[in-house]
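Format notes (please read before filing issues)

Several people have asked whether sequences and structure tokens are stored in separate files. They are not. Every record keeps both together, in the order shown below: the sequence lines, then the token lines. Line labels are part of the format and must not be stripped during preprocessing.
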Amino acid sequence: MKIALVSPYDFAYPGGVNNHIAALDRQFLQMGHEVRVISPASRTVHHFGNRFIPIGKPRPIPVSGSIIRVPISLHLAPRIKEVLAEERFDIIHLHEPFMPMLCSAVLRFSRTVNIGTFHAHNGKPGYKFGRPISTYMLKRRMLKLHGRIAVSKPAMDYHCQFVPGEYQIIPNGIDLEHFSPKVTPIEKYQDDKLNILFVGRLEKRKGLNYLLAAYQRVKNEIKDCRLIIVGPGTRLRKKYEKVVEENDLKDVNFVGRVSYDELPRYYLTADVFCSPATGYESFGIVLLEAMAVGRPIVATSIDGYAEVVNHGKEGLLIPPKDKVALAEALITMLRDPELRHNMGQQGQVEVQKYSWGNVAKQIFNYYLRVIG
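Then the structure lines:
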């Protein structure tokens, strides 16, 4: 089968949707299918060779406390028509299918079976992004979508408001060979201190400001602990570093962006993984990554996270924006090595169902069902 995987976002920047597409590409190739990845790109993407088809020049646009990089040109049609005519796909799988401008335009000109995966949970699918698609146009596009996948129930509930219909819930996946407890930890953090790890872009909605406030209390209670902050971001990083300096917080390490190859080593270095996101998370990829290497979790009880972590089993869930509850949960975890061990083991069992092999099979079986 010849499959097109279409991303609305700049493929030169890592992110949940683009990582999802790259993983599906690997799995479908292993299954013997022919795959093309269609996406805007601000620079050359080498990973896919000539199987990557760049369309559109992405621009950075602030949306819902984050930055999306999408093309805003109204002149993508000629190139899209040319590609669709040349490639003659059996399936076009669009991720965030109504996000302007690329996905919406591909859906408009497609003459084959179209599947849409809906990732977002409030704020970033394109419905409210400058109102680029009128209600009339949205209804016309919906008629061309033959199948709908949501990565979680919160994502499905949100998108149903705009795109009603039958959805198949198929979660995000994880590479269990890459995120493995067999990797080696980061040596410089292997001392007598207990490590709390945060992984994520330094954006307001990721909740790092609440973690820093909670860490101040944690550090007063448990002197031999450390906070390791992994993730890209410059503007807010300066603000957070100022908070650390003004409050004289010790043992806070800003690592910045790390490579995909290095990331599992940071998870293994942690004694506790913490994700205090305040919302707009349809699914907890970072939670799966921590679980895969056997690390217990402290996270907020937002919808997307509660879909992944069972409170009291793989980790502890606390209300968002509650720095007191966050501090108490971290202190509880750090003081109880047996609890950390048991939750880490439970996470390794639970995460098996999210392997990319399983997820890709579910998606392909859904293709067959829609075609049939």
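For reference, the curators noted about this record: The mean pLDDT is 93. The two ends are 14 Å apart (CA to CA).
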